[in-house]
Amino acid sequence: MSLDLAKVVAQVGGMVARLKAGGEERRQRLQQALDTFHDPGCDLSDLARKIAASSGKTTWLVAGLVDGLDRRYKAPPTPADFTVIATDGSHIDVDRHRSNRCYLVNTGSAILDYGASADASLDSLPRLYSEDEDMVISHPGTSRREQPVEGALLGIKRGVEECHRLAELATGSPPETPTLALLDGSLILWGLEAYPDFVTDIMLIKGYLHHFDSMMNLDNSQFAIASYISFPRSNDVVNTLKIALCPQEVVDSDQYCQSCETRECDTVAGVTDRELFSNILEPGERSAIFLSQSSIVRKHYGVHQVHFFYLRVDDEIARAEVPGWVALDEKRLNLAHTLLLDQCRRGHGYPVALAEAHEKAVITGADREQFWQLVESTLTEEHLPSLGSAKSLSKRTRWV
């Protein structure tokens, strides 16, 4: 074993001691957040105005208000017959130590029908990319501007493929059957903020959101799409409380925060939305709807602007994200709420359709090695060079 745990024991002990020492201060911050959240004197229209005026001026992401702040909603009755569709993906990245540049995206899917015609369909769709045009995203106006599809950008492409497959399956779902389409993780393609606009145009607008358009336009008024985030670390709603606590009419981090002496917002610093709602929601309840004010969402998502709510499933608080056309349609929103809850209860706290899609998508370490062996052996059979780097060979060779 390369990790000497004996040398880490004291460091872990120190970490735990610091957590215990800060426990009381953390409890006080959580209580302040709860008091602010439930403050009967809070003018929501004034808070909404203040949030709008401060948009883009804070260094932290603030949730927009849609239907209030401290509202709670019980789950509507579950339909007798319904369908849940889910996709998830995994990939094998480009390996620069191998002789051939290629990558593979494996998209798993699950279609679960409940009720009188109960059925299940589980599948995976592996796709190998090796053509020159697959390896880069090129600016449509010039071939001199391009981004290689690998690393983080390949992860984004995988998300687009998951959405594409979900849209294909949703198109084949029975009309007028209550149907929930599920993705794992955020609907916000955060990583695109690091790339040029032409990459965003191709991956997000012509790819990801195009597939959302297809699902929005389905001839089924009982169709909803949502993403599920287990054990979220976000604090958008707590940051809204910071806006409420700040004495400034426009909260501008760069202009006021460094010179602020009272630091009212620090009284809730470090509290997560998950901690807040674990003290508010009862099992099965969801929170009010909130609006993501991510710059990429505000700039590009349009009718698919990401809204979110928190859902209590037994002892866990999860975050569910939905596009605007679901969030602002009561029937679709209620469907997302009740079917998400039903899926979690069937799946011991996690949506069973997503768990099944993940199982079909997962690529193990052994799978990766077998994939590369297949590539190299096929190259050899066709008398093509299959030499890799010395570093790659060294890692695959046992040394005494």
Q: What does this entry show, briefly?
A:
This protein is of the alpha+beta class and 400 residues long. It is built from 15 helices and 13 strands. The protein has a 9-stranded mixed beta sheet, with helices on both faces. A two-stranded antiparallel ribbon has the order 2-10. A two-stranded antiparallel ribbon has the order 6-7.
Query: Which percent band covers the strand fraction?
Result: 15-25%
Structural class: alpha+beta
Radius of gyration: 24 Å
Mean pLDDT, as a whole number?
93
Order of the strands making up the biggest sheet: 1-11-12-13-9-8-3-4-5
Q: List how many beta strands DSSP finds.
A: 13
In N-to-C order, the SSE pattern is HHHEEEEEHEEHEHEHHHEEHEEHHHHH
Write the layout of secondary structure elements.
Elements: H1 9-21, H2 23-37, H3 44-54, E1 64-65, E2 72-73, E3 82-92, E4 103-114, E5 119-129, H4 132-135, E6 136-139, E7 142-148, H5 152-171, E8 179-184, H6 197-216, E9 223-229, H7 236-245, H8 253-256, H9 273-278, E10 286-287, E11 290-291, H10 295-300, E12 306-313, E13 316-323, H11 324-327, H12 330-346, H13 352-361, H14 365-381, H15 390-395
Parallel strand pairs: 3-8, 8-9
Antiparallel strand pairs: 1-11, 2-10, 3-4, 4-5, 6-7, 9-13, 11-12, 12-13
Helix pairs in contact: 5-6
Structure description:
The structure is a single chain. The chain is of the alpha+beta class and 400 residues long. The chain has a domain at 82-232 and 296-361. The chain has helices at residues 9-21, 23-37, 44-54, 132-135, 152-171, 197-216, 236-245, 253-256, 273-278, 295-300, 324-327, 330-346, 352-361, 365-381, 390-395; strands at residues 64-65, 72-73, 82-92, 103-114, 119-129, 136-139, 142-148, 179-184, 223-229, 286-287, 290-291, 306-313, 316-323. The strands form 3 sheets. Strands 1-11-12-13-9-8-3-4-5 form a 9-stranded mixed sheet, sandwiched between helices. It has a two-stranded antiparallel ribbon with strand order 2-10. A hairpin with a 2-residue loop joins strand 6 (136-139) and strand 7 (142-148). The model has no long low-confidence stretch (mean pLDDT 93).
